[in-house]
Write a structure and sequence with these properties.
Chain lengths: 233, 308
Amino acid sequence: MLRIENVNTHYGPIQALHDVSIEVKQGEIVTLIGANGAGKTTLMMTICGDPQATTGSVQFDGEEISNLQTASIMQKGLAIVPEGRRVFSGMTVEENLAMGGYFRTKAEAAETMEHVLELFPRLRERFSQRAGTMSGGEQQMLAIGRAMMSRPRMILLDEPSLGLAPIIIQQIFEIIQKLRDEGVTIFLVEQNANQALRIADRGYVLEHGHVVLEGSGQDLLTNEDVQKAYLGG
Amino acid sequence: MTETLLYLIQQLINGLTIGSTYALIAIGYTMVYGIIGMINFAHGEIYMIGSYVTFIVIAGLLGMGMVSLPIILIIALVVAVFIASTYGWTVERVAYRPLRGSNRLIPLISAIGMSIFLQNYVVLAQGSRDVALPPQITGGWTFGDPAVFEVSFSYMQALIWGATFVTMTALTLFISRSRMGRACRACSEDLGMTNLLGIDTNRTIALTFIIGAALAAVAGLLLGLYYGVVNPFVGFIAGLKAFTAAVLGGIGSIPGAVLGGLVLGVTEALTSAYFPSEYKDVVSFGLLVLILLFRPSGLLGKPEVEKV
Ligand SMILES: Nc1ncnc2c1ncn2[C@@H]1O[C@H](COP(=O)(O)OP(=O)(O)OP(=O)(O)O)[C@@H](O)[C@H]1O
Ligand SMILES: [Mg+2]
């Protein structure tokens, strides 16, 4: 569904991704783990065309998207829950969700919003509250709900568990699995490698902008190098 | 009532009148800054063009023998808003959009260039001398004791207050309720994220320029009629004043622009009432310096966060 081939991404003179190749198949949960500064966020954002890859190919559903503008990429059935959540803090929960379904018809958006609110009863309670006044966990749910509003076939999640209490992290991981059960393909970046690998079908390890390892979630969990570097073992 | 008090009331009326037009222009600065973090220095020129179009249309309609003032004013308003918006949109399209993503100094220089260009373009097309229009709206209300001091509130001033109020209300409703208004707010909070939701932010930015220009045209019509003269350079000083108002209120904040405009207008009126009127501009730009020194985020603004 998503095929990234030999992608290099630069920030000015700094090269953040080196020849990265990754594939995510329909219906999978694929996770990407790596230390701070490894380039995980850069990879996520390169898929979205912000920044664009300097060289290499990004294909979504067989279509080359690496040269498209961000807005048109995001209308192709792809949505992102970005690093740091980035909810619109001055806007209400309702308005945030509405922004997620902006380019769909009113009726479609209303239907999806109902679905999101069923999945996150917390958001229904806070429907008219401004997002900036909500807790970190609630904001993360809102960011996920907002991404769902465009009815994407694939969702990119960048460290959704960051800074949250264990019980909330648990909920977030349950939601991710629920999304997959609904048929949404998931590409998940996590520092919380243990939990991520457990729900993932496959995983990749990124170091200094290079993919250094790939395998099934189970294989990576038991891999000695991974254990040493990312699982505190 | 005493003479001092009546005199003060008169100055407040005058100050709020000018202040509300500053507010109308200031909104254009503040909305553009809120979204793309740049000062659109050509905005004052858009206001000036709005004034010119108003004069040309009114003179033309009068020349054609039209007599109904309300109809003349409405036609002038529609034409001025339309033409000014077209200029606002075009300026963004040709001078700013191609530079998006470059160092923030570059669009700023482009904006100054655009301002000089528009000024000289009007000089070439219309000449650099004052163009005058005889007063169209005369008369007003007076109150107070004629033996002490008579306060006057002219119909023209009433029109300025009324038109500003209606425009601000319409803008507030648009921003808070409509789909596109919501997109404007989203863009000013986080342009990149709005883009990541599949929203064409270039269109939202263009819309912001159009709204700002339309409000500047309303101000151009009102102030043009109020003063009765216009020249190619009125945009420079009015733009500077409105920019001061935007910074005073907190740049990026729409209620801030309104408050800043009113505060600035009243300050100016009071200064010229009690001191030689040459001090007026000294005081308003002194106010700008003080605000920048002691409260750079302005009266209602949020503390500055560096946009990247
Ligand atoms: N906007 C930018 N400009 C310049 N360099 C950047 C920019 N964003 C990221 N980088 C650099 O690119 C490299 C990869 O950063 P990235 O944010 O992708 O890492 P990450 O794996 O997501 O890290 P973290 O786990 O801390 O989120 C880092 O060296 C970083 O300094
Ligand atoms: Mg990151």
